[in-house]
Design brief:
This protein has 489 residues and is α/β, with parallel strands linked by helices. It folds into three domains: 4-233, P-loop containing nucleotide triphosphate hydrolases (Rossmann fold), CATH 3.40.50; 234-332 and 415-489, Rossmann fold (3-Layer(aba) Sandwich), CATH 3.40.50; 340-413, no CATH class. The chain has 17 helices and 20 strands. The strands form four sheets. Strands 6-7-8-3-9-10 form a six-stranded mixed β-sheet, with helices on both faces. The protein has a six-stranded mixed β-sheet with strand order 16-17-18-13-19-20, with helices on both faces. Strands 2-1-4-5 form a four-stranded antiparallel β-sheet, with helices on one face. A hairpin with a 2-residue loop joins strand 4 and strand 5 (67-71). It starts with a strand and ends with a helix.
């Protein structure tokens, strides 16, 4: 019989009158990889905090390694032997790798630190998992992948019973994520358990022994390996069906509006070359959604820099014959960054002022014209509702802020919007909504070039998918060929 590392029984957590966790039940066994997929983000942070630390709960019991550590009767605020690994590293930058793994680990008892001995011990650990990291290297010079590996090793050496990995695919590339998965499998054979928090169903279903589906602070269902393999619960299909409702809108009107120009590309990349980009050429037409899917993440960072205006080694990028930097200045092109709330919106401006931020490039004297501003309010009131009158956007929800960011592009009406990883850091329900906002831009005749590796939710709105491998175009799929995500990946 498997040893139960974590058991949460009917846990309810209420803070400031808000129910964060609602009658939640969860168990994780020794040597198991348990997945956590949140349909929305409600309660996810509270759950992870509660697993790591015994904070007061309204009702329920929590057992760790079959010992009661927290209940509604008593919470001692102690930390549990659980490691949380996320984008933010918890390593000490000024110390070496060996010092972080051994000296700062729980249970280190040496009075005298012998660096040579620690380095030898570290080498044994890294050789076991097939990585090379010098023990004398200072942490501040490590890559995100190396920091992630060192944090796993530190957790192992500290005797942690459970290791939580949160959204590692948001800051590691595909190859690095795959290597982390291999390391997880290695340590599960030694009895260490993992909670893998991820919003990519395809990724989590292939890796995990079981998956907990969480929604609104409650575990909706637990999927076993055979359930996922047998597709008894096919969340991507549910997402696709919902998005199909969006894409059922008749796009004939768009074709009619752009009948004279839709065959002519609005955006052209021709023989673009950088260190990891090998003569990339592609085009996007008016009102078309093209997804740029890099299979091995070899050039993601470089192509983002290129779209942001970094000088090219070779080739050209033009929007209606204007180079990309010039076309952005002329409002012909817009970039929607990976985190639009943080990077596009201005908290000190009102909702209306945020939407109209680029209006002065198109309309002279815009900020002095009360008549024009009233006209815009009348136009957007049926679209965004009463939020158009909001003076302080900091009180809006994340969903409402995403609505604001995308409607700023909607108002700007560029020829093309370049969307950089629109789904990388958001939950399923918000992805569904973002896909709907992207469809609105397409319905307005705005072309979309989307750089994304999590493409399931994009398939219903995509007209073409261009697969890139090794910095070059490897294959291209039309809308009719995008019916099966598994066939592409």
């Amino acid at each position: 019989m498997k040893n139960e590392i974590l058991r949460m029984e009917r846990v309810t957590l209420i803070e400031d009158g808000v129910t964060l966790l609602n009658n939640l039940n969860l168990s994780i066994y020794s040597g198991e990889i348990m997945g956590l997929l949140s349909i929305n983000a409600n309660g996810q942070s509270a759950l992870l905090d509660l697993i790591c630390r015994n904070i007061p709960i309204h009702y329920g019991r929590i057992y760790l390694d079959e010992q009661l550590v927290n209940s509604h009767r008593h919470s001692n605020m102690s930390y549990n032997p659980v490691a949380l690994i996320e984008k933010k590293s918890w390593l000490v930058d000024s110390l070496t790798v060996s010092d972080n793994v051994f000296v700062l680990s729980h249970g280190f008892r040496g009075a005298i630190i012998n660096p040579a001995r620690l380095n030898r011990e570290l080498k044994k650990l890294t050789e076991e998992i097939g990585v090379e990291i010098d023990g004398d290297t200072h942490v501040d010079s490590l890559s995100d992948f190396e920091c992630c590996i060192i944090e796993i090793l530190k957790a192992v050496m500290s005797g942690m019973k459970l290791i939580i990995l949160q959204d590692i695919s948001s800051f590691l590339n595909g190859k690095e994520v795959s290597r982390v998965h291999d390391i997880m499998h290695f340590y599960t054979k030694k009895g260490i358990s993992f909670l893998y928090v991820c919003n990519q169903y395809d990724e989590i279903s292939k890796l995990c022994d079981r998956v907990a589906i969480m929604e609104n602070g409650k575990i909706r269902s637990i999927l076993r390996k055979q359930d996922m393999e047998g597709k008894r619960f096919d969340y991507p299909t549910l997402v696709k069906e919902s998005l199909d409702e969006i894409s059922k809108k008749d796009r004939a009107d768009i074709s009619k509006n752009f009948k004279d120009v839709n065959k002519k590309p609005v955006f052209i990349m021709e023989d673009v070359g950088q260190e990891s980009i090998k003569g990339l050429s592609l085009s996007v037409r008016y009102g078309e959604c093209v997804v740029l899917f890099d299979t091995d993440d070899t050039f993601n960072e470089e192509i983002i820099k290129v779209f942001s205006g970094q000088p090219l080694n070779t080739g050209t990028i033009c929007v209606e014959d204007d180079p990309l930097p010039v076309s952005i200045e002329k409002n012909k092109a817009a970039i929607i960054p990976e985190k639009p709330i943080q990077n596009m919106l201005f908290p000190h401006l009102s909702y209306l002022d945020n939407i109209c931020f680029t209006a002065d490039r198109r309309l002279r004297g815009f900020w002095r014209s009360v008549r024009i501003r009233k006209s815009i309010i009348n136009e957007f009131l049926p679209i965004v509702g009463e939020n158009i009158h909001v003076k302080n956007i900091s009180n809006l929800s994340i969903r409402e802020l995403y609505c604001l960011a995308y409607h700023r592009i909607y108002f700007q009406r560029p020829r093309i919007a370049i969307c950089i990883k629109p789904f990388s850091t958001i939950d399923y329900s918000l992805r569904l909504y973002v896909a709907e906002l992207m469809q609105k831009l397409l319905d307005r005749g705005i072309a979309l070039l989307v750089l994304e590796k999590n493409i399931t939710e994009l398939l219903p709105v995509a007209d073409r998918l261009i697969m890139v491998k090794g910095g070059q175009i490897h294959a291209e799929f039309s809308r009719d060929e995008l019916k099966s995500l598994s066939d592409i990946i």
